[in-house]
Amino acid sequence: MSIKKFAVAVYDDEAVLFPAVKKVRGAGYKIHDVYTPFAVHGLDEALGEKESDLHIAGFIYGITGTCTALGFMGWIFTTDWPQNFGGKPNFPLPAFIPITFELTVLFAAVGMVLTFCYLNQIMPGVKKHIFDPRQTDDKFVLVIEVNDQNAAETEAFLKATGAEATNIQVAESDWWFGRFDKKEDYEIQQQLA
Amino acid sequence: MLNQEFKVPAKLKTTSLTLLGIGIVTLLAGLVFLLMKGDQMAQNRFWAVLLQNSIFFLLISLASVFILSATSLAQAGWIVSFRRIPESIGSVVWVFAIIVGVILMAIVWTNNTQIYRWLDPAYNPKNSLNALKNFFLSKSFFTFWTILTLALWGWFGVKLRALSIKQDSEPNGSTKVYWLNFNFSAGFIFVFALTLASTIPWLWIMSIDSHWFSTMFSWYTFASSFVSGMSMIMLWVLYMKRQGYLEIVSTEHIHDIGKFMFAFSIFWTYLWFSQFMLIWYANIPEETIYFQIRMHGPYRIFYWLNIILNFVAPILILMPRPNKRNYFVVTLVAIIILVGHWIDFYQMVMPTTVGENWHIGWFEIGILCGFIGLVMFLVSNKLTKAPLVPQNHPFLKETVIHIS
């Protein structure tokens, strides 16, 4: 939990955003984040983001699901409560495959969604600062963390990259528990100031 | 400046003609040593091998026409960068159609009951219960439907290519031919659904075991041919790239074809397993007889090879993202898939025709070489006929900047 100062640039078009990202990174600024209304293809590479390890987590969840299904069914039908279904063996692998498949998918899907939420800090009741309300509608918002010395200079640089609007915001950089329909104290103070 | 004019390299030409030569020599040798001999099993081997190979190569070439139509209907941009390759493969479908037509007609009109048991009138009793099946498996319907299907497939393959080449000479930005192509693609999908995706595999392959039937069979054959077709497209794209052509095809496009190979290997397994599990679980003798010979009989090696080559290998090798973007790995998997599905077709055709006396010997390999040579020769010749990148295609820019 720390209140920081940010230079915010609002772009109108992804065609402007891409060269801007390139220029900002070329000039040596460290980008805090870019907010877009939709998934922009290639932006992760332009930002120099590393490939996420989410799919490795997904593979582990999937294998866990496979083992859970086979292990549990195997234990029930061979040890706990063996029954004879139509003369089939007690561990009929083909008959278990559909359930194993379903459990693999279920574990992988649910696990990956939860991991994704954890990595991106999104959950019901978790609130983050929104730099521009239109970042979920039709604007592309680029945010750089600044300090008191370089704030004005950074803002001017962002303006020169073709931003439609720029401003300096003091905001919480991390997440906190709260509600998006309610303003926090410091947000109200910020607006009054 | 893009390298648009493909010249067939001398090495490719010699290889393809050599393979084709091997195929023709094997066919002649087969005529003398298998067909002319009085031995029934040798004759069955001759016809079954020709049937399996010709249908396999026809269906994997046809997969190119299908992927072209499907992507045209979905208005997909990514395929445009290497569109000429499936187009070239699709435009030689008619050659394979003629070969399949000749072989099937030869089998049916010589009353070869060793291949198609239903040709024997005593085998399918005439009663009201089988009335529809007797109509479906009759010489006249078989001939009519086969020839109609083959003609339509060949025609659509040539037509889609002709339209794409017509687009080259249209003014820039014109979408007239594009929409024409869209409509013809829709027509092909309709024909495809009524033929390959339903009736044709029943007629040509499933009717070999004429008492056994499975409604999944056509879908399973379709998945088999489609995943091998994508692998063949992959091999051609990579070959052209290694020769210095197709500069606008990037790793992103290769990644996308790799995804198709990965996803449809799983799709094939899904269908194969759905067919297998219901029969295994219900355990009705007239159904399990199909798997008895394949799982526990002389064909069990192919049964396991089928699962290993067509499911375990592609899913494990292609699962990590970097592997789908590695040219060597995708080449390897494409070859594994093609071999695996050739074996899949082998175990569809052989158990009921040659039974225990299966071979993978000089005749099988020779005929396979012949068909490989034929594909290489025909497709490489087609590729020289038109620029390698479609000119004035509306999605050309989209395909160049494509990110998978």
Total count of strands of chain B: 0
Which two chains form the greatest contact, residue counts included?
A-B, 13 and 9 residues
What coarse outline of chain B follows from CA principal-axis ratios?
A: globular
Beta fraction of the residues of chain A?
A: 15-25%
Share of β-strand residues of chain B: under 5%
Please identify the structural class of chain B as seen in this structure: mainly alpha
- Going by helix content, strand content and strand pairing, the class of chain A is alpha+beta
Output the helix-strand order of chain B.
HHHHHHHHHHHHHHH
Overall helicity of chain A: 40-55%
Please provide the ordered H/E string of secondary-structure elements of chain A. EHEHHHEEHEEH
> What is the makeup of the main sheet of chain B?
none
- Average pLDDT number of chain A: 88
Q: For the CA atoms, what is the radius of gyration of chain A?
A: 25 Å
Largest sheet of chain A: 4 strands, antiparallel
Give the C-level CATH assignment of the largest domain in chain A: Alpha Beta
Overall pLDDT score of chain B? 92
Q: Compute the gyration radius of chain B: what is it?
A: 21 Å
The percentage helix of chain B is over 70%
The CATH topology of the largest domain in chain A is given as Alpha-Beta Plaits
